[in-house]
Design a protein that fits this description.
303 residues, six-stranded mixed β-sheet, 5 helices, 16% helix, 32% strand
């Protein structure tokens, strides 16, 4: 089960009531010098991180390896059966290892990766879920009878954008849509970067408006004031921050989160540099709703 980020927990806990402004600040405001020190720390950590190379040149999946089906076209019992891992294999799975496959990104870049056997993919699909609280009730759960398997392809999000990946598609009797499992060997994948110091992710995403102009999307409280954006650049990274402060004259506030946008100007074109959030230290994904701070206790390779 994924852990909610600290900022979201605060919003959920206080959205319906008034609180003292001093009790709900998600992070202390920092000076320009403190930002520079923090940004250098974040950039240096990223430069030496083992997660850097897979993130920019490898395959880091950002969704479960068992792809979500269209539940609207599934019989009602299928979801409960899947949660309870009520699988029953009624066909012979190919035992041979397929040839390596090429992953393909929208920018036409590719990566050759090893492909799992159908047996290994089925083991990942059918393994028991760790978050199941009760046994499958007799009248609400049926066996998921796997009667066929075939190779397929699907698109999933990754650190380098959406990518076409090979899949093993398992047909379940009585279900029109197959269950799809990413067929790439997890040993060839990278893991999501972890936030530094248990920090919150203040900047959630960005958009490139011009070679040296970014628009940042960030979250703050409704009683906060935004004083501007800040940036620290290195040859391989751009560290960004938004100067948000709680107004001193606000004594009580409905602590509701709000998303805003703000521009930031770079000295040099962004190019292929990675954009990092200074609060959490994690990379940002352009125009994405995926927040890496939520991956603190979650690794898609083990899904």
């Amino acid at each position: 089960m994924r852990t909610l980020p600290a900022a979201l927990l605060i919003v959920l806990a206080t959205a319906c009531g008034s609180t003292r402004a001093s009790d709900t600040s998600t992070r202390a405001s920092i000076t320009a010098d403190e930002f520079t020190d923090r940004a250098r720390e974040v950039a240096e950590h990223w430069q030496s991180s083992a997660e850097k190379e897979p993130w920019i040149a490898g395959f880091v999946p950002l969704r479960n390896l068992t792809l979500e089906p269209d539940w609207g076209h599934m019989p009602h019992w299928v979801g409960r059966s899947a949660i309870n891992s009520a699988w029953k294999l009624e066909t012979e799975l190919p035992a041979e290892a397929p040839a390596p496959a090429k992953l393909r990104w929208a920018d036409e870049s590719t990566l050759s990766v090893p492909v799992l056997t159908a047996t290994a993919a089925y083991a990942g699909l059918s393994k028991p879920k760790s978050f199941v609280d009760e046994e499958c009730p007799a009248k609400g759960c049926r066996p998921l009878r796997v009667i066929a398997v075939a190779r397929g392809e699907a698109t999933m999000p990754s650190s380098r954008g959406d990518v076409r990946v090979p899949t093993w598609d398992f047909t379940v009797k009585g279900v029109t849509e197959p269950f799809r499992r990413v067929a790439v060997d997890p040993a060839a994948m990278g893991g999501p970067p972890r936030p530094l110091d248990h920090g919150i992710q203040e900047v959630s995403t960005y958009e490139v408006r011009a070679p040296t102009e970014l628009q940042l999307s960030y979250t703050h409280g409704i009683c906060d004031t935004t004083y501007g954006s800040r940036v620290h650049e290195t040859p391989e990274a751009v560290v960004v921050d938004v100067d948000v402060r709680r107004d001193d004259d606000v004594k009580f506030c409905n602590d509701i989160g709000k998303t805003d946008r703000i521009g930031v100007t770079l000295r040099e074109p962004l190019g292929r540099r990675v954009v990092l959030d200074s609060s959490s230290g994690v990379p940002l994904l352009p125009q994405s709703d995926i927040r890496l701070v939520e991956f603190r206790n979650y690794d898609p390779r083990r899904s």
